[in-house]
Specification:
Length: 101
């Protein structure tokens, strides 16, 4: 399963995602079965178009059995998020405020 959550993105990004995925709620998109190649292509388009965005963010989460917790995350915009394993728990790590920007 792949889920993408957007915040403050341009209509063309929302339209692109709505044409490739089911929009569950405003800015929340989901697809049950995507190949790695399709997911990578969608992410490449988002990365390219995101260069024109301001005050926006995009988060993609997908099933990834090879990593702790069974899912992986990619982000565009602020705050960047990294998943880390600590004592067998999967935690979200964000940069300190003075490290961002």
């Amino acid at each position: 399963m792949t889920v993408i959550v957007t915040r403050n993105v341009a209509d063309r990004i929302r339209g692109f995602l709505a044409s490739t995925m089911l929009e569950l709620a405003p800015g929340v998109y989901m697809s049950v079965r995507y190949s790695t190649a399709v997911r990578e292509r969608i992410w490449a388009v988002l990365e390219d178009w995101f260069q024109l965005e301001t005050e926006a963010s995009i988060v993609m989460v997908w099933s990834e059995p090879s990593v702790p917790g069974g899912y992986a995350v990619r982000t565009l915009g602020l705050p960047p998020v990294e998943l880390v394993e600590v004592d067998g728990l999967l935690l979200t790590k964000r940069a300190a405020r003075d490290e961002v920007g």
